[in-house]
Amino acid sequence: MKTEHRIYVALAILVLLGIGLFATLKKKKEETATHSATAASAELPKIGVPKDDVEKITKVELKNADKSNLALEKKGEPLGRGPNPGSPKGNRGEKSAALLQKP
Fold this sequence. Notes:
By secondary structure, this protein is mostly helical. The chain has a domain at about 1-40. It has 3 helices and 2 strands, in the order H-H-E-E-H. A hairpin with a 7-residue loop joins strand 1 and strand 2. The longest helix has about 30 residues, at about 5-35. The termini are far apart.
């Protein structure tokens, strides 16, 4: 085979590899776009609760066909919402001093 024919064969193989690379990258880009967060959120319905009804909700149940159900229930006041939520229980210095005292 002549050198000239070898060059043509090599160029043809190079062109075919370039076309294959282009097709693969294009397919990967389309697949990434279909699986992106914006595409997924566009398909999901909007779930919302009016602000007036938020305080009335005391229990939420999540049902799954394959696994057991999950129930979240509000019991009592949330943490930090007591009569004086900003007051500290004690400072670090007092606690460490109490622990270091010898009996």
